[in-house]
Amino acid sequence: MDPKHLVLFLLLLFALCPASLSSSEQTDAAALLSLKKWVQHDPAGVLQGWDSAQDLCYWHGVTCSYWRVTELDLSRSGLVGILPASSLASLDKLQVLNLSQNSFSGNASLLINLPLGLQQLDLSVNQITGSIPAEFFTMHSKLSFLSLSHNNLTSLTVFSSDQLRILDLSFNNLSGAISEPDKFIACNSLVSLDMSSNFLVGHIPSLFSNCTALQTLNLSSNQLGDAIPRSLGELISLQRLDFSHNHLTGPIPPELGNTCQSLTVLQLSSNNISGSIPSSFSTCSVLQVLNLENNNISGLFPDSILGNLLSLESLLLSNNYISGPFPASISSCKNLKVADFSSNKLSGSLPRSICPGAAALEELKLPDNLITGRIPKTLAYCPKLKTIDLSLNFLKGRIPSELGRLNNLERLMMWFNGLEGRIPPELGQCSKLKNLILNNNYLTGEIPQHLANCSNLEWISLTSNEIRGRIPREFGRLGRLAILQLANNSLSEDIPQELGNCTSLLWLDLNSNNLSGDYSPAFGTSRGSCP
């Protein structure tokens, strides 16, 4: 090429490039300014700097690459307006759009007009209504993240995507059945699916087993029924499974044990699940949360399970029909923080090995069972215990004085048992104690004045025992005490006027004792009542 012609060609090329770039920038700016026009309220003024006189790449929430808008993040801005999906269509380089936690309204059918190159779309916590169009996933084939949670979506659409990894449709008004075979056509890349807190019905489809990459599956708080499909055992990458608060029936499929190489959270609470707990769960060595409460689970608790659940932190089995002895193997769960067996049919005595084996234990709940024997004093070797609830059982013997070593204890509840002997003065060392509920036992002796050292006490219930002596005057120092129930004992002497200093007192029950004195004036300035 002639040198003169080459120079002219290069000059022409350099002249055209800025013009082309400027044109693209103007198109992007026009799209964003159109969005601004649809915003009716901008309480934080985040869009005030959006001005055509300034470089759009410096506008709030805008990220550019090579002078083109690639990301727009206006999340948590309190913006109120209409989502102009069509106006944003010209942002052909946009990859990330985050308008979450605002008040954008619009129909979901218009989402097909959003830029086709989007990879991440977050419109959660807005006011989007209607149904996602069936062609949305086909047209936006590059999407890997989609969150439309906390909106007003009303019905499911056909889902087909080989790229989408995270789909969150939780907290909407989605209705209908997910069991229809055409709802999930392709989900090979799907890692997380959350459709919780909707109005979905029907059974859980076995086709979820096709989503082989799934790590999180959350269908909680819907109206799903029938049995849990055995095919879910094929999801060997599953880490979190939550079907709680539905109407599921039938037994827990043993095949779920196949997912245990990665399963960390299993939530099946508040259903109508029956049968026993599968022994296949013994392979769930990384399981941290097992929540089966509020079901119809029965049979013996397989003691062999807990010996292998070394990562378990929460074991929630309340309100079932589980029988047999309390599992001694719980002592192997070194990381266990919460053990809740409330309202079952467990029998026998509590193993001494619970502590210090489960030394991380913070809550031990066993009310409304058939537990017999004595309270093991070794509970004092679980120093992190905050709650001990052994109410409504058949325990006998004394309350161990060793429990006074539990410096973190907040709730000690042992009502309706056969406990006898005195209330240990050592409990006065439990400085964080809030609730002391020991009513309906056979406790004797006097009320320890040392309890007044527990300045956080809010509720003391010693009703229906055989306690005698006086009410400690020192209780007048309990500024947080709201409920004091001492009825149906053998208390005597004058009612201490110092109780009038308990300014938080709401309920005072001293009935059926041998107390004397006129105590009404002492409470003239308090909110307490004296039934």
UniProtKB/TrEMBL annotation:
Superkingdom as given in the UniProt entry: Eukaryota
Keyword terms of this UniProt record: Glycoprotein, Leucine-rich repeat, Membrane, Repeat, Signal, Transmembrane, Transmembrane helix
GO CC terms of this entry: membrane
Gene3D superfamilies linked to this entry: Ribonuclease Inhibitor
GO MF assignments: receptor serine/threonine kinase binding
Membrane topology of this protein: Single-pass membrane protein
Domain Leucine-rich repeat-containing N-terminal plant-type: 26-65
Name this protein carries in UniProt: Leucine-rich repeat-containing N-terminal plant-type domain-containing protein
Source organism (scientific name): Taxus chinensis (Chinese yew)
